[in-house]
Design brief:
alpha+beta; 60s Ribosomal Protein L30, Chain: A; 2 domains; seven-stranded mixed β-sheet; four-stranded mixed β-sheet; 13 strands; 20% strand; binds magnesium ion
């Protein structure tokens, strides 16, 4: 039997005894460490060097899905944004917005899941906040995490850093997270259960940087998928990119689900994958380092950054008025474009995804 005493109530957010109990019983028990346990108004940290600092809010629906839950996602999402900047992720803060009536048992499960992910990622949650809002004001639970990491000397990774001739490397199968969430929502069944790829990438990135610190650009293809990532890099670096669709690692179930749902796999969210841009002479060494880590066994070169003058056939035909307005013609028609060589051998333009096609995917 569950009663009101087993759920989070508005009074738990009042800042008094009930708040202390909730924080102590659920969050400090799962996530406690010497820094968090001081329960000061702010964590105090000793850090040296160039820092990476990021924040991400998580509103995924459903809260529990194959391969993870909002707790694991909120931890790894922020860890990965630090990791793809080349930073060693160190400290995390977490804010929980909880709806009145949320089961405490579910909150405990989510906190334990964050604990496991934090251990995997070798980070500590050192600051936190909880607020309780009335029924209807939040859909169960939202979690915002921010994180700090230290960037090793000699590492300079930026979206603007991609250079003509660079190899484009994807760390593994595309679209697992997006399809795991959608299949849970739609009640789709597969022969093999499809799981989210939700995982912390810090350790793999550390190995990658050991193999070559000269990674030019790196990003994780989360919301908006590979299509958004490549377009962002193309715009930031002022380059065009061509990918080879046949080279993109993808599970048969993901491919099948995309056909069934009419989705382009390039827009699907991923939560344990990254895309790296490196000079072609460094690509082999980087791939080797990725293959030697469990999260990178499927890594593959999926494309390259085009050199000036390398343009795509059919460019003008596929240039939509919206894109033309966003990227004014500066004389070179194929600037900042992303092309995909299709399995049929033709070439198409990969557009920046428009609007919110897959709401609350992360
Ligand atoms: Mg990111």
């Amino acid at each position: 039997m569950s009663g009101p005493e087993d759920t989070v109530r508005l009074a738990h957010g009042g800042g008094g005894r009930l708040t202390r109990e909730l924080v102590g019983d659920v969050f400090a028990r799962a996530l406690g460490n010497p820094i968090l346990n001081r329960m000061d108004d702010a964590a105090t940290l000793e850090l040296q060097g160039r820092l990476a600092f990021t924040i991400d809010s998580h509103v995924v629906s459903p809260l529990f899905f194959p391969g993870g839950d909002i707790g694991r996602l909120s931890l790894t999402g922020t860890v990965n944004d630090l990791a793809v900047m080349g930073a060693a992720p160190l400290y995390i803060s977490a804010g929980f917005i909880i709806e009145d009536g949320f089961a405490i048992a579910k909150l405990e499960r989510i906190a334990q899941s964050m604990r496991a992910a934090a251990r995997e990622a070798r980070v500590q949650v050192v600051a936190g906040d909880t607020k309780v809002v009335e029924q209807g004001a939040a859909d169960g639970l939202f979690i915002t995490t921010s994180g700090i990491g230290v960037i090793p000397a000699g590492v300079h990774i930026s979206a603007a850093g991609a250079r003509p001739g660079d190899a484009v490397i994807l760390s593994g199968s595309l679209g697992d997270h997006g399809i795991a969430i959608l299949s849970q929502r739609e009640g789709m069944k597969f022969d093999v259960e499809l799981k989210s790829d939700c995982a912390p990438l810090g350790e793999m990135v550390r190995q990658m940087l050991e193999a070559t610190p000269r990674i030019h650009a790196m990003r994780d293809p989360t919301r908006g998928g590979l299509a958004a990532l490549l377009n962002e890099i193309a715009l930031a670096a002022g380059v065009s990119i061509e990918i080879d669709e046949a080279a993109i690692p993808m599970r048969a179930e993901v491919r099948g689900a995309c056909e069934l749902l009419g989705l382009d796999p390039l827009i699907l969210a991923n939560e344990g994958k990254l895309v790296a841009f490196v000079a072609s002479q460094d690509a082999e060494r980087l791939l080797e380092a990725m293959h030697s880590h469990p999260l990178g066994t499927g890594a593959a070169v999926i494309g390259r950054v085009l050199r000036p003058g390398e343009t795509g056939p059919g460019d003008d035909a596929s240039r939509s008025p919206a894109t033309a307005a966003a990227t004014p013609d500066t004389g070179s028609r194929s600037r900042n474009r992303v092309y995909a060589r299709t399995v049929m051998g033709s070439r198409r333009v990969v557009q920046m995804p428009a609007g919110e096609q897959l709401p609350r995917i992360c």
